[in-house]
Amino acid sequence: MVRGDKRTEKPLESPLELAPSIRTRDAKRTKAAILKAARDEFCEEGFNGARVDAIAERAKANKRLLYHYFGNKEALYSAVLLDAYQEIRRGERELSLSQYDPVDAMDRLVRFTFRHYLANPWFTRLLAVENQQNARFLKQLEDIPALHSPLVAELRAIVAKGLEQGIFRTDVDPVQLYISIASLGYFYVSNMKTLSTIFQRDLSQVSMVQEREAQAVQMVLDYLRTRRS
After folding, report:
1. Which fold has domain 78-225?
2. Average of pLDDT values for 101-108?
C-alpha cells in the first residue's frame, strides 16, 4: 500500500473465519452423497440386502459420518424414501397447474408424471422395495400426508373447473384419477424390459416413448370427458 494513502484494505479472512461455512458446505455435500449412494444401494439390493458398508463405500464417506448424519440403516432408508417423494411433489408444484385451463393442466400433469418415471427409473425400483416392506417405513413418515394433500386438492380444483365449463364428467375421484395417471407411467417404465422382449419392440426408443406418452394423455382426457350413461 502506498505511504500516505488513507484507504484501508479489507483484511483477509482467516482460516478460522472461513471454517464454519466450509464445514457447512462439506456437510451438505457429504449428506447428499450418502443419500444418493443409499438410494442406489437400496434400489439394487432391496432393504434387506443393502449394507451400510457398501453405502459408505459408494459415497466415498466415512461410515461414522453416515451414522452421525442419519442414525442407522432404517433412518437412512426412510430419508431416501422421503427425499424421493419430496422430489416428485416439488416438480408437480413447479408446474403451477392452476394457471392453465383444465385440459391443458391435465395434459401437463400426465406428461410430467410420465417423464418423471422415465427420467428416474430408480423411483419405480424404490417403490417396489417399499411395497415389499408392506409400506412399513412409509407409514412412519409424518411428512407424507402433508406432501400429498395439496396434490389431491389441486386435482380436485382442476376437475371442478372442468365441470363448471361443462367438459369434464361429474363423478371424478381425484385420488383414483392420480392413481391412474401414475400407473400409466409407472407400469411402462418398471416393465419396459419384459414388455420389449414379449412384444419384440424396443420400448426405450424415442418414437415408442413419445407414442406412449401421447396415448397416456389421451386416455386420461378421454376418461375425464366421458359422460356417464
Report:
1. Tetracycline Repressor; domain 2 (1.10.357)
2. 98
